[in-house]
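Problem: given the chain below (178 residues), write out its structure.
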Amino acid sequence: MKKTILISLVSVAAIGLLLTALTFGVNGIANRNAQKEHERLLKTLLPGSETFTVEPYEGDDPLIRSVHKGESGFVIETAVQGYADEITMLIGVNNEGTVTGLRVLEMHETVGLGAAALTDWEFLAQFLKNKGDAAVGDNIDALTGATVTSKAVARSVNAAVAFVTGADVDSGATSWGG
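Solution.
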């Protein structure tokens, strides 16, 4: 009887160790895959850059979370308050101050309205046409029914461009025509 209990305990302990080892192995693979995906995204947002280094951000713009320096510019991570919650974005800006790409990483805006900023390519593409010599916004068509979200995205883009160009761009509310 004691021998059976001992064998059962050893078996349970061995299975527990095996599951723990598998968990650490899978987590390591998942972390490596996430890092590769992040690097691929940075390269997509800032064409012409192959390697990125994270630079400490010591500025006073509360929208900027992190700065990734590449050979041809920067990818800036921003976080800004939208209508429902914070909107986190990555914005590629080349050394000339032109927006080369942007991606909304996380948002919790209203489905069918502000959440369209995740997938409305016509809305997002407007920011790629802007050069860093002036704040974007006056010539951006807002998402229908989602002016707050649209302004939040514009503030994020303004903050990223201002970081790269050194421009004194007010990243406050953006005015819209009409």
